[in-house]
Design goal:
12 helices; 6-stranded parallel β-sheet; alpha/beta; Rossmann fold; 295 residues; homotetramer; 3-stranded mixed β-sheet
Chain lengths: 295, 295, 295, 295
Amino acid sequence: MAQVAFIGLGTMGYPMAGHLARQFETLVWNRTASKAQAHAQQFGSRAVADLKATTQAEFIFTCLPTSVEVESVVEQVLPALKPGTVWIDCTSGDPNHSRRIARRLQEAGCDFLDAPVSGGKAGAEAGTLTVMVGGNRDTFHRALPAIQAFAGKVFHVGDVGAGHAVKAVNNMLLAIALLSAAEGLVTLVKQGVDPAIALEVINVSSGRSFSTEVHFPERVLTREFPNTFSLALLAKDARIAVSMAREAYVPVPLMQLAAEMFEMAKQQIGGDVDHTAVVKLIEAWAGVEIAPKGG
Amino acid sequence: MAQVAFIGLGTMGYPMAGHLARQFETLVWNRTASKAQAHAQQFGSRAVADLKATTQAEFIFTCLPTSVEVESVVEQVLPALKPGTVWIDCTSGDPNHSRRIARRLQEAGCDFLDAPVSGGKAGAEAGTLTVMVGGNRDTFHRALPAIQAFAGKVFHVGDVGAGHAVKAVNNMLLAIALLSAAEGLVTLVKQGVDPAIALEVINVSSGRSFSTEVHFPERVLTREFPNTFSLALLAKDARIAVSMAREAYVPVPLMQLAAEMFEMAKQQIGGDVDHTAVVKLIEAWAGVEIAPKGG
Amino acid sequence: MAQVAFIGLGTMGYPMAGHLARQFETLVWNRTASKAQAHAQQFGSRAVADLKATTQAEFIFTCLPTSVEVESVVEQVLPALKPGTVWIDCTSGDPNHSRRIARRLQEAGCDFLDAPVSGGKAGAEAGTLTVMVGGNRDTFHRALPAIQAFAGKVFHVGDVGAGHAVKAVNNMLLAIALLSAAEGLVTLVKQGVDPAIALEVINVSSGRSFSTEVHFPERVLTREFPNTFSLALLAKDARIAVSMAREAYVPVPLMQLAAEMFEMAKQQIGGDVDHTAVVKLIEAWAGVEIAPKGG
Amino acid sequence: MAQVAFIGLGTMGYPMAGHLARQFETLVWNRTASKAQAHAQQFGSRAVADLKATTQAEFIFTCLPTSVEVESVVEQVLPALKPGTVWIDCTSGDPNHSRRIARRLQEAGCDFLDAPVSGGKAGAEAGTLTVMVGGNRDTFHRALPAIQAFAGKVFHVGDVGAGHAVKAVNNMLLAIALLSAAEGLVTLVKQGVDPAIALEVINVSSGRSFSTEVHFPERVLTREFPNTFSLALLAKDARIAVSMAREAYVPVPLMQLAAEMFEMAKQQIGGDVDHTAVVKLIEAWAGVEIAPKGG
């Protein structure tokens, strides 16, 4: 019997499944089958053509665009699932969807963990992703060795949905950091300050964030905006975060405004560009670019 | 002739002037004279009772609450100033005020640098502050050895006012990071997630900031909110940042909203508490506290 | 056979059912039965103790706090419903709920109209309410004579859910008008302007709204805030409006912020007061009251 | 001696000065002199080529784009002013500028009233403008007969600056009403509701405002946006309103956000279009137009 299966070989899933294949007998399935075959060749995994064949595994991983696709895959596979299977969803999903999926799996005697990751393409390739896991603690410990195949740090953050909740909030903080740094930097450009120097200062001061330390120097100042994680997907995570807050009647005015700004950006900049390209919305309003002087 | 003078021995100024006194003959003046005398005793500086006596120095430093106090001090001292004196203002001031002060000093043949600092009380005591300097490049190089007495890194960021501009934006980014992390964490608390664990995850993920790495673990989770930098002073810096943006007709919706939230906090929480206590505004709206579970 | 039934004799429903009883044989049901008996005595309606007894009517009206209560009542009555019955929901409800309720009724051969009203307690008593109706056009025309019993103007605004959608947006505009007028008036009070005079001017100028013309003179300046429609219910309508926008990926930054401000007000002022008391949130932030000078 | 002078014959000033000329001996001055000559011919006023010639009048009116132009005109004319002259500024100006202008005039023994108007081009032509006057009460009564030449209602709203303050807030409420109605209507369009019908309903309900009653039917639904008052000028008034609030440390989150949205619109739509064209910003974000169905 195969030990693990991996569904969804995108930018993140492809290398994650590669790390699993080094340690476990691994089945891989992808909507575009050729990608699964390439994976088999590169990492020694086994490509399966039929989604249902993944049910031979003890641990089934998903890494898909949204919880909608996960739900659809679960429903297709459900009749064939063996009791005791653990479903580990690495999608940046929606806690409410996850709780619904978990209930469906439980009816079939299966367990669910939401296990979204942080660290980007680089972290996936290096196998050093941060993983935030929601679900039953015993199930978590059972699945931990498999998860550790692609992880730097693994955290059990609470019940089903908690992993997705923490991921959504993390990404919302990233979204706000991107937007606010852009607002601050266009303000400085208008004052005649070189944004490259301003970033150097901020990055050894109290205003620094992952975004000012990594995104702005590597993606914005260079004007390259390499597309590793789309603006539309970060907008989706922002929506999940504000939706949790609203369901709980929690006022989060900055998060709400940032979520709106990502929707504006989707209309004005497009959703298919890198998430860091959201700074172009702020630049368009300001009428200036965040580019180094004489650069 | 004394080499440097320091006006304003507050939380930051006191240790900064201490570092100067180790390398330079240093005059110190403080509104409450006893503090200057204590400084003299501790660091071997020379306390002067008359503000005008500071004009014996080649470099006069100020570190005061706002540019209003700096302007007032400059006007009192102006008639006694010797041409060639360099005034170095370490206040988190207002670029417009600074440009006005610089013009006044120029009429007396003196130079002005705005040189606000970042790094807090700890950085001031260790002499490792980040200093962002605006003003003439030659003046900057003349003053650099004195500034380095209390600095880790020193940056020349542009013309007069640029130092204050960068500082205001840095602090605005800090203000937004504080508020948005609070919004995100109360959302997670409502989902049953332990905020201590959520912070651990965020701090190895893309949502991290100085605020989540330092402020939340040390000041918020502990519920200690030690008062090292007041909420009212951060609100003032936020006002400077949005005022620069508005003068330049630059839309900065997140910065504007954050500035309003700091004014709300001043009314609801009070301005005299530590700036990190602004999270209590968000907590009051949510009806929960950001405290570790079982803590 | 009775012609109409009315479920929910609250502030609005009680007089609305009264107008119906003048023209139609009318059954009335209320959770607190004594209110139904009082209605029967006052208007000659017939009080029924069993909710299912309302199914004798051709037209069943509901006027309840939210769509949640409507859905619950529909489910209880559904098994007893006769095909051809028209359900007319005057609740300020949620379009999504309404569409779900309509589908359930359709399975039983019944029709649904969402028919929320505007005009407040005074309009309900005078029988001059504005009614905005969503649903099938033929059903609308069949129900129109009954609806006109309590209406000034009746509009067919679209398919099922459209009535609730228009009502939610109308109330959101009211919410924003209340908040923004409060913001403007505290600003003027701080400038020393008498808010009573400012309102007189605004009400013959381009800044006027229903809120400045009616609410501020009658409820705010008098400091009476008579509780005819609760802050919590207007907050609920605001939530419906922003939820429609978000489902459609439409950025509505002012609506989103206003919805958050109503949640803040529920925490700080309480939800059980009149909706106009939301101005106290703005007053608390400003530290002044919107009261006539020397009043 | 001429009784009144009028400086600034724009869209508003031209007809206002016309009404004055029917009752008073009236001097007119305009930057483009031909307009003054046309006025003289049409209304029997007297065109003067030299700005200083206006000082022959007892009452000098200004109606200019902003307080900056008023200040400049006052400074040019000041040396020639006779003590006792009353300067009546109908510009939608800035209270702080007005107080500065008033002090300058007072040094010359002259009085100042800020007297901005509401009612648009139509009101100016009909002589039915609403006038909100700030300044000394005796001066107000002295000037009242002249002001009434073009007014429907005249209000004394407080000391110097109060007129401009009330006008700025009125226009801010208009700005918010425009933006929020646009947000609400695009939300309804996305729900399939005809915005023309939605407006009919709102205009007999509690969400109505001057903007939904007049602007949307006449300017937006028709897609005509006739340019009677520019977007840039309303943006300027919005800036005056939020600047008053900020100076007074009053949090006004909706006003601040609306001010930012007008700046965004200036960048994206342009400032020279009619102020109602700001709805195109909201439409662009939503990807739909507010146009009647089948219209």
